[in-house]
UniProtKB/TrEMBL annotation:
Protein name as it appears in the record: DUF1989 domain-containing protein
Top-level taxon: Bacteria
Region (Disordered): 1-21
InterPro entries, alphabetized: DUF1989
Coiled-coil residue windows: none
Pfam families per UniProt: DUF1989
Organism: Pseudorhizobium flavum
Biased composition (Basic and acidic residues): 1-17
Domain DUF1989: 53-233
Length: 285
């Protein structure tokens, strides 16, 4: 609570009310876990079939067929990437950052899945390797690969700084989608959504619980790897914040390209993989 808000006097039973035990909303073990051992075997057979370089302060799209793997790779220097995912055949089904956060955690890693929006709500991708998996939680309470932040965007930037900046992740993702699908910027914009902040190091301050970022521990060669559970269209922005250690929404930070690599495994190993259908719930009215 900030000092701008005056705290009302505590009730007599405040301590008792605060003493209730936390209950994990979606408890561990209630969500069917992916068969990582099987995906691990498939990983040993990967053959690269495509590669996309995302220039600094810009965005690019890529496609990943169901049953394939893809990696977001750091190549020239510490760099954060903002990732959007869509069902390649239906842009209305897209990555649902909020539900992914609720089902897994504020930051995601191996074994976690990226879930799609309602009413489909199914895993779009499963994280199968994370070279930053060693980072865990640091002394500031920060971790990597968050599903807390939304994406840097020119509207918030204008609100806060009064200036206009055209290479925010939001704009980069809109332009990338627009050129991939032959849409205008205005047509593409509503499809761009809250991201997975690949490699970004973030947390909440201990005193005021405000969202903070700090310089990413990512180094060239690091990557985050996913298994595509459905046919995917992806878009990645190389954030103008670079390693997000100081600022974003400007040309001040050192900024590097990112690479997306797409791999095909030996498909016999995954011939009966339980690829997810759209969620089966139907409203009675
Ligand atoms: Zn950004």
């Amino acid at each position: 609570m900030t000092d701008r808000i005056r705290r009302p006097a505590e009730p007599a039973d405040a301590a008792e009310r605060r003493s209730k035990k936390p209950v994990v909303v979606y408890p561990n073990g209630t969500l069917a876990a992916p068969d990582l051992a099987r995906l691990g075997k498939a990983r040993e057979t990967l053959e690269k079939i495509d590669e996309v370089i995302v220039p600094p302060r810009d965005g690019r799209t890529f496609t990943v067929p169901r049953g394939h793997f893809f990696r977001v790779v750091s190549i020239e220097g510490p760099q954060v990437g903002d990732l959007n995912l869509w069902n390649a055949h239906d842009l209305n089904e897209r990555f649902f950052s909020g539900k992914t956060r609720a089902l897994h955690a504020t930051h995601v890693s191996v074994g976690d899945r990226l879930w799609s929006t309602l009413p489909s709500l199914r895993p779009m991708a499963t994280i199968t390797h994370d070279t930053l998996g060693w980072y865990g939680w640091d002394d500031d309470g920060a971790g990597v690969h968050d599903v807390i932040g939304t994406r840097c965007d020119p509207y918030t930037n204008r609100l806060l700084s009064g200036g206009d900046y055209h290479n925010c992740c939001h704009s980069n993702l809109c332009r990338a989608l627009s050129s991939a699908r032959g849409m205008s910027f205005k047509e593409a914009e509503p499809h761009v959504h809250d991201v997975l902040n690949v490699f970004m190091c973030t947390g909440f301050t201990k005193d005021t619980h405000q969202y903070f970022m700090k310089a990413s521990p990512v180094r060239p060669g690091d990557y985050l790897e996913f298994f595509a559970e459905i046919d995917l269209l992806g878009a990645l922005s190389a954030c103008p914040g670079g390693d997000c250690g100081s600022s974003h929404s400007s040309d001040v930070a050192a900024c590097y390209p990112l690479k997306v690599e797409v791999f095909r495994p030996d498909r016999d190993l995954l011939s009966d993989w339980p690829f997810p259908d759209r969620n089966g719930y139907v409203s009675p009215v």
